[in-house]
Amino acid sequence: MPDTLRQIAPNVWIYPRDEDPNRTQPNVGIIVTGQHTVLVDAGNCPRHARRIMIALDDIEAPAVSHVIYTHSHWDHVFGAMVFGAPVIAHETCRRQLLETAAKPWSHAYVQEEILRFPQQEASLRAMARAVEDWRNFRVVLPEVVFSKQIRLYLDDVLLEIEHVGGEHAPDSVIVRLPKQRVLFTGDCFYPPPSYLRKPDDHFDFGMMQTLLRDDIDWVIDGHGDPYDRATFSALAQGKLNP
Ligand SMILES: [Zn+2]
């Protein structure tokens, strides 16, 4: 279980995912400015989020001031209640999470969902493992939404958040820090979620090439290792196996 942050650039860190695919844990981006800490995604459960809080203490980061959801999938959202910070996301993300939040979450409910949607069993089992205690659980809805893009100026750090959509999730957004030359993509260039995936589905190479602007040196995706520019570029041209 990696409890150490990895620094990517000035102001930018990640809390790296657990590499065990059965845990369905995403990388969480951390942007620290003078007065603010911004998270890119919220962790997949309150326990994961609490570990992130401890790691933030270790680097004496300011209190979390904003959380950005890259998209509405549970593994990027279900830790948010721990941070008590306003969430920014695409307007479609809010709409989808209104439905997620209305479900009667409990261990019994997740078991019923597995029977109703056997093709989603792997993801639901990972959810059941992640969320130990549903009693006080709640889905935090985005309170700042946008349709195309939004810019945040926090101290001397600029964050550009932009809707890109894609096959994986229609509400996918990216977070770009031009000065730090870092791009967070969430899962935007991935194929659809595994239960909807067809055997010949692959990364969206066209989208990846568009995302790699000249001002980007590092790409952080949802569930992989950080990519330097050369590696991401090779991947986007289909020269590397994901
Ligand atoms: Zn996803």
CATH homologous superfamily heading: Ribonuclease Z/Hydroxyacylglutathione hydrolase-like
- If you average the pLDDT, what whole number results? 95
CATH topology descriptor: Metallo-beta-lactamase, Chain A
Q: Roughly how many Å is the radius of gyration?
A: 17 Å
Strand residues, percent: 15-25%
The secondary-structure class comes to: alpha/beta
Helix-strand string? EEEEHEEHHHEEEEEHEEH
* Widest β-sheet, arrangement of strands: 1-2-3-4-5-6-7
- Give the count of helical stretches: 6
Which oligomeric form is depicted? single chain
List low-confidence stretches.
Answer: none
Largest sheet: 7 strands, mixed
Taking the alpha carbons of the first and last residues, their distance comes to 23 Å
Query: Can you list the ligands bound to this structure?
Result: zinc ion
What is the total number of structural domains? 1
Q: Can you count the beta strands?
A: 13
CATH class category label:
Alpha Beta
Approximate shape: globular
The CATH architecture would be 4-Layer Sandwich
Helical proportion? 10-25%
Write the layout of secondary structure elements.
Elements: E1 6-9, E2 12-15, E3 28-32, E4 37-40, H1 46-58, E5 64-68, E6 87-90, H2 91-101, H3 107-116, H4 121-130, E7 144-146, E8 149-154, E9 157-163, E10 173-177, E11 182-186, H5 205-211, E12 218-221, E13 227-228, H6 229-236
Parallel strand pairs: 4-5, 5-6, 6-7, 11-12
Antiparallel strand pairs: 1-2, 2-3, 3-4, 8-9, 9-10, 10-11, 12-13
Helix pairs in contact: 3-4, 5-6
Zinc ion is lined by residues 71, 73, 168-169, 187.
